[in-house]
Structures are given as structure tokens and as C-alpha cells.
Amino acid sequence: MDIQKVLLISQEIDPYLTGTNTAEFSRTLAQQLQEKGAEVRCFMPRFGAINERRNQLHEVIRLSGLNIEIDDTDHPLIIKVATLQPSRLQVYFIDNDDYFYRHTQQKTLEIDDQPETNDERAIFFVRGVIETVKKLRWNPDLVICCGWISSLVPLYLRTIYGDDPSFTGSKIVYALAGKPFEGNLDPRMTEKLKDEGLTEEQIKSVADEDGIIDFNRLNRIAADASDAVIDSGADSDSACVEYAAASGKPFFPFSEANGADEYFEFFKSL
């Protein structure tokens, strides 16, 4: 494939959030692809732990203002942007006080004090990214998703947005990153996904026999809907790595030796 435009969607990107493999991997990969000549745009949540003044975030008025309805409630979408120097990499932030602002300390990002909304945070983030990319009129050749909060992106692009011209030519790669959370998501998540536009058959394919979706299953959902899977680091969950490697999809295992050339050649082969 010809890689000219790359959309990287991540839970964490250094230096906005630091100290995790996901954050470091996301920034390094984005910068490496840009250095290879690709036009790269990144998206992540605007968690409350991110200092807007220090990181020079500013709202993009023309992209903000959309209300995203989840479970019969409207949630305003605010889009902010910053530019990483000296690479001038553009990073867009999906912002909503209800879902992200209460995370004012980085250590709380993986433990939500309102765990019943974890599924809605993922749905809101995914919808926010996709709708914003459509507004930008910028059609990516390659979509890379990293971290659990991006795990619904491949599913949405293959189902709800399957006929959208913004993504019909896109290859989707899911990056396994970090260990999944323990426990289940809201038992009503399948109902919410049905409201989003998934069919009964599609929902059966993503939930277990009791209709439950846990965090480990999110990684499998993402792998199944993607064109390829990469293992981003040594902290990836071993069960998810084994599942992806056995899935029959192109799989790129983690190695300390992996660099820009290796990733770029793998993506070009898709």
C-alpha cells in the first residue's frame, strides 16, 4: 500500500501523558512515520491530567460543537489541538468534562471512579475521532489504533462507517498495548452498541454468550476487525498476543530492534 496519510489514535501520547509504554510508543511511531514522508495526525483523549497552558492546547472552534448522543443523553464534543516541537506533529484532543476531566492525576487514568461509564468513554472517544476526521475532509491511507480506549475504532469503521468514503480505502492496524483492565464493562454495553447502529448479529460476534464484554475482549474485537495487528511492547497481555498471532491476520511481533524501517515495510505490505 501507498502510505501518504496516517491517522494514529492512542490512549496516551508522550509528552502529554508520560511514563507508559503506550505513550512512548505512540509518539515514537508517529514521528518515525512522519520522518518517512507520511502526513501524520494523532488523536487522544484530553484527560484532566493534561496541563493545557503548558502544552499550548487550543480549541478548534470549527471542529467543535457536535453533540454525541449515547444512551439517550447528549454529550458535547470539544476538539483541541497542539503541535509537538520540533517535529511539528499535530495532536488533536477529544474533550468532554463528563468523561475525561475528572482524571486529574495520571495514575487514575486506568482506574475510573465511575467504572460504569468506561464503555461510554470509549464510544464517545471513537465517535469523536471519526466525526472529526470526516469534518477535516482528510482521508487516511492507514489508521493505527493503540490502547483500549481506541479498540472500538476498527469495529466502527468496518460496520457503522463501513460505507463512509473517508475510510473506505483505509487499512486498519491495531497495536496491542498494556495489560487489559480486570473486570467487565457495563452489562448494558451491548444495548448501547445496538443504539449506535450495530446489528444483533454483529453484537453477538463481539460479546460473550452472556452478552458481556470485558476489557480483554475489547482487544479481540479490535484484532478481528483490523487488517493487521502489531505488538507494541513487552507489557502487552500474553493472551491477547497469542490470540492475535493465531488469528491469521498479518502480525508484527514486538522486538527491541523494531524501528522506522521495519514498521514502515510492514505497513507497506498490507
List the keywords.
globular, alpha/beta, 10 helices, Rossmann fold, 9-stranded mixed β-sheet, single chain
- Give the structural class: alpha/beta
**Secondary-structure element pattern, one letter each:** EHEHEEEEEHHEHEHHHEHEH
Strand order of the largest sheet: 3-6-7-2-1-8-9-10-11
Fraction of residues in H or I helices: 25-40%
Largest sheet geometry: 9 strands, mixed
Which CATH architecture would you pick?
Answer: 3-Layer(aba) Sandwich
Mean pLDDT across residues: 89
Low-confidence stretches: none
For the record, give the distance between the C-alpha atoms at the N and C termini, rounded to a whole number. 6 Å
The CATH C-level class name: Alpha Beta
Broad shape: globular
| Continuous helix count | 10
Strand content: 15-25%
Number of domains: 1
Radius of gyration: 17 Å
Description:
The protein is globular, with a radius of gyration of 17 Å. The mean pLDDT is 89. It has ten helices and eleven strands. By secondary structure, it is of the alpha/beta class. The chain has a nine-stranded mixed sheet, with helices on both faces. The chain starts with a strand and ends with a helix. It has one domain: Rossmann fold, CATH 3.40.50.
Summarize the structure.
By secondary structure, the protein is of the alpha/beta class. It has helices at 21-35, 52-55, 97-101, 118-136, 153-158, 189-196, 200-206, 215-225, 238-245, 260-268; strands spanning 5-10, 39-45, 58-59, 67-70, 73-76, 78-84, 89-95, 142-146, 171-176, 228-231, 251-252. The strands form two sheets. Strands 3-6-7-2-1-8-9-10-11 form a nine-stranded mixed beta sheet, with helices on both faces. Strands 4-5 form a two-stranded antiparallel sheet.
